[in-house]
């Protein structure tokens, strides 16, 4: 594996968190994301439970650094009502989810014990 710094921040994940009672509405958001920006990112299905360090239901996108500004611009419309975490894919997942992460909307505590 190549650990040079210029190789570490190439792939990013975005986690769009929601509450279960919002699932029907978030399905519509997910459809909009799929219809409007699937050319920029790999879009994963809704996950209706916490998983690993992620404490709430969510859906995830995976994208490259070169489309970061477009992704952020698109998700700005949701930051008032949702918690959105963006982080690089790194070997050190704790650093990826903390020091190198970006939050849009309300920051929520992650379950970092799953990463150690």
Automatic annotation (TrEMBL):
Keywords: Dioxygenase, Oxidoreductase. Gene3D superfamilies: DOPA-like domains. SUPFAM superfamilies: DOPA-like (SSF143410). It comes from the Bacteria. Signal peptide: none annotated. The keyword Nucleotide-binding does not apply. The keyword Ion transport does not apply. InterPro entries: DOPA-like_sf, DOPA_dioxygen. GO terms for molecular function: dioxygenase activity. This is DOPA 4,5-dioxygenase. It comes from Acinetobacter boissieri.
């Amino acid at each position: 594996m190549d650990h040079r710094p210029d190789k570490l921040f190439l792939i990013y994940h975005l986690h769009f968190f929601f509450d279960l009672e919002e699932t029907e509405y978030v399905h519509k958001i997910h459809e909009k994301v799929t219809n409007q920006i699937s050319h920029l990112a790999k879009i994963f299905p809704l996950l209706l439970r916490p998983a690993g360090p992620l404490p709430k239901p969510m859906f995830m996108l995976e994208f490259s650094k070169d489309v970061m500004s477009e992704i952020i611009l698109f998700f700005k419309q949701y930051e008032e009502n949702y918690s959105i975490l963006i982080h690089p894919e790194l070997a050190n997942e704790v650093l990826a989810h903390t020091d190198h992460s970006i939050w849009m909307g309300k920051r929520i505590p992650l379950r970092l014990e799953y990463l150690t």
